[in-house]
Design a protein that fits this description.
The protein is an alpha+beta fold. It has a domain of 133 residues: Alpha-Beta Plaits (2-Layer Sandwich). The protein is 22% helix and 22% strand. The protein contains seven helices and twelve strands. A three-stranded mixed beta sheet has the order 10-1-11. Strands 5-2-12 form a three-stranded antiparallel beta sheet, with helices on one face. The radius of gyration is 18 Å and the shape is globular. It binds iron/sulfur cluster (3 copies). The site of one iron/sulfur cluster has 15 residues, from helix 2.
Length: 207
C-alpha cells in the first residue's frame, strides 16, 4: 500500500494551524516540528515615476505546507544503516525507535528535511502520517485541523482522482524524481509565476 498527502496551494492562507495542531498532538517542543509552512515569494514591480504609485508587475506570494511525503523512493530508508527508518505495509515511512542509533544519516539524505534528531531521545523523529489515528479510521490531525480544507490524505491513486491537475513539485521543492514524493499539489497561479521567474523562501528562520 501507499500513503500520501494532497495540498491545495491556492487555498492555503499560511495560517499554520496544521503545523500547530501537529505540534500539540505530538507534544513537540518549540524547536521541533513535523509539518512546516513555507512562505515563498518573489517577482518585480515598476518603480513609480512622477505622480504614479508603484505598479505591481509579477509579484507573487504563496504558502506550502510540508511534512514527510512518505515517498515512493525514500532517500531516508536507503541510507539508514540499521533499518530503523522503514516503510511499513501501510506505505508510511517512520523510524523504529528500538533500532535507531541516532546517526542522523536520514536527516541528511531527505531533500525535504523531514526527519530530525530528537535531542532528548538522541533518535530520529518525524511525521508518521498519524498512523495511530489512521488505524482507528481517523484523519491525520493536520488534515482535520486545516480551516480551509487545503489538505487531504490517503491512497495516492485515489488522491489524483479526487484532485485532478495535481503535480508533485512546485518551488521551492526538489524535482519529483528525487524521491517520487507521495505529495500531490494543486498549484496556484502564483506557483506558475514562480516557475517562470524564481523566488525565495521568506520565512527561512522560522522553518
Ligand atoms: S520526505 Fe524525506 S523522510 Fe519522508 S519518505 Fe521522503 S525522503 Fe524519507
Ligand atoms: S538516525 Fe536512526 S533512523 Fe536515521 S539513519 Fe540513523 S539509525 Fe536510521
Ligand atoms: S500526519 Fe500527523 S504527524 Fe504527520 S504532519 Fe500531520 S499531524 Fe503531524
Amino acid at each position: 500500500m501507499a500513503f500520501g498527502f494532497f495540498f491545495d496551494n491556492a487555498r492555503c492562507t499560511g495560517c499554520k494551524t496544521c503545523e500547530m495542531a501537529c505540534k500539540d498532538y505530538r507534544d513537540l517542543g518549540p524547536e521541533a516540528t513535523f509539518r512546516r509552512v513555507i512562505d515563498y515569494e518573489g517577482g518585480t514591480w515598476n518603480a513609480p515615476s512622477g505622480t504614479e504609485t508603484a505598479v505591481p508587475e509579477n509579484v507573487f506570494a504563496y504558502h506550502l505546507s510540508l511534512a514527510c511525503n512518505h515517498c515512493g523512493d525514500p532517500a531516508c530508508t536507503h541510507v539508514c544503516p540499521t533499518g530503523a527508518m522503514h516503510k511499513d505495509d501501510q506505505g508510511l515511512v517512520w523510524p523504529d525507535e528500538r533500532k535507531c542509533i541516532g546517526c542522523g544519516y536520514c536527516t541528511m539524505a531527505c531533500p525535504y528535511h523531514a526527519p530530525f534528531i530528537d535531542q532528548r531521545l538522541k533518535k530520529s523523529s518525524k511525521c508518521d502520517g498519524c498512523r495511530a489515528r489512521l488505524a482507528e479510521g481517523l484523519a491525520p490531525v493536520c488534515v482535520e485541523a486545516c480551516p480551509v480544507r487545503a489538505l487531504d490524505y490517503g491512497d495516492p491513486a485515489e488522491l489524483v482522482v479526487r484532485h485532478p491537475g495535481a503535480v508533485r513539485s512546485i518551488l521551492p521543492l526538489p524535482a519529483e524524481d528525487a524521491t517520487w514524493p507521495n505529495l500531490f499539489i494543486l498549484p496556484s497561479p502564483a506557483a506558475a509565476l514562480a516557475a517562470e521567474a524564481g523566488g525565495h523562501i521568506a520565512n527561512r528562520e522560522e522553518i
